[in-house]
What we know:
Elements: E1 5-14, E2 20-29, E3 68-72, H1 79-95, E4 102-111, H2 117-123, E5 130-134, E6 147-152, E7 158-178, H3 184-191, E8 203-207, E9 225-237, E10 240-250, H4 257-269, E11 287-293, H5 296-310, E12 319-330, H6 336-346, E13 351-356, E14 362-367, E15 370-375, E16 378-389, H7 394-406, H8 408-426, E17 429-434, E18 439-442, E19 446-457, H9 462-470, E20 478-479, H10 481-491, E21 502-506, E22 510-515, E23 519-526, E24 530-536, H11 542-557, E25 570-575
Catalytic activity: chorismate = isochorismate
InterPro entries: ADC_synthase, Chorismate_C, IsoChor_synthase, MenF-like
GO biological process, one term: defense response
Amino acid sequence: MAGAVVRHYLTTRFMDSETTKCNISYTLHSHTRSPYSLPLFHNKYETRRVVALMNGCEGDPKLPIGSIETRTLTTVPSPSKAMERLDVAIRELKCNPPPLTSGILRLQVPIEEQIEAIEWLHAQHDNLPRCFFSGRRSRANGNGSNLLMEIGNGNGDNCFTHNLVGAAGVGSAVFFQQLHPFSYHDWRSIKRFLSAKCPLIRAYGAIRFDATANISPEWKAFGSFYFMVPQVEFDELEGSSMLAITIAWDNALSWTWDEAIHSLETTMQQIASVVVKLKKEASGEPILSKTHVPNKTHWHLAVEKALQEINTSSSQLVKVVLARSSRILTATNIDPIAWLACLQVEGEDAYQFCLQPPNGPAFVGNTPERLFHRKWLSISSEALAATRARGESSDLDLQLENDLLSSPKDHLEFTVVRENIQNKLESVCERVVVEPKKTVRKLRRIQHLYAQLSGNLRREDDEFEILSSLHPTPAVCGLPREAARLFISETEMFDRGMYAGPVGWFGGGESEFAVGIRSALVEKDSGALVYAGTGIVEGSNPSSEWDELELKTCQCTKLLQLEVPKQSKVEILEIIY
């Protein structure tokens, strides 16, 4: 389908004078209809088409983009002043368009005040698509991954250096999405728009846990993978902030400079510059109902079936991760961004993320597990497996820690994960170091066995190889991978979607992905599914594994009890591992 461009139209619906909601509809401007495009959405509400976007996967990744550039403008004191400065810059760009047929340009305005990216995103209400990603905020264990940035003053001088804490974006300068499994061609299509010289031009997104499985309705908006380079991005830095716009165009994709500028102007008209402090606390709103699939009886049967397969001498299966799907009904409509803000308080030593494509729900999470972090040729990953609750006292917490460290069953589960990741890294790295080899990683509510692995890639193109080889890890799938995946597909009766899949960002010289666990799919006025998973190995007990599901579900559902405006009853699609 060369030369086709998928256009995502933002449709604004006016219900009454006090309430405004947004919905997205799709249409394709090509003689060939995209397999993932949807017909234009019609309903009783007034509609208005305002924005259109370009799918970078439809281009030729072998053809370089004409220009990749970042320009830093004069530092300003506030987001409103940054908006004014960018509005002027856009008018100047319209008067002096570039002579190139393709390119990507980022204009960024440093802001003296440090403002939380999550609060800026919350101020944008339902502007879609949107994304958010923040790295670990705790640096005590030395595995933080904030990006060190030199921010110019607009006069060509680098005046101060800050760590990037988190980034939020709305609108899409270019997006990347297909129904087929994420491929080397798709990876090259994304990298085509990136450069090490422009480290903050990044593509945020996620990939399905199992791209070979059928996509269920709640995950259709994501496709097999979904990535976006934000049109408008707010970066939270240590001690300051930055507001940026990005324009991407490619005539070969029937997406010209004029169309890109018009799309950006439309998005800018919807951007709020007033940011209000969020209350990061739960309200104690009760959950009305919860239904598990499988129920406890059928869960026991599934675990016994897995143990029988593991203990069969002719079977290769060593470990399989089984999940549970639950339907949750609450009395309020959940604001996914407000919930994500609560997750930041809950998990300082974790990644927080949000990804919401047009016409789709919000995939939100707070995951402690890194898949990999690459900077140039240096790469690091982690093994995280086995679970205990945190103790109510320091003595009880230490007792639980020692029990976790001494458990033969948990040692086996953890060793399988660590050795598998080490083998995968060794296939593309010159040397792999495992340090620490086994320790306990303590989170706010639970604790896990943990190891850190690092190495050096032979070449940067091995990034795709390491992504495709590491995912899915034995911590969320099992071992051997294909045997475990087949067992899961035959046993589980629901679509995991992006749950337990890679979630993160690609950059020019740096990329980082977490494992999409401790996560939720939140959609207004629709059905709800809840997932939790646990690893089954020799020695596993069905009742104990059920209790672990309850522990993991409980810690997340408490956080979903947010103080939000009272509306109609809503169900939340939540995914927990």
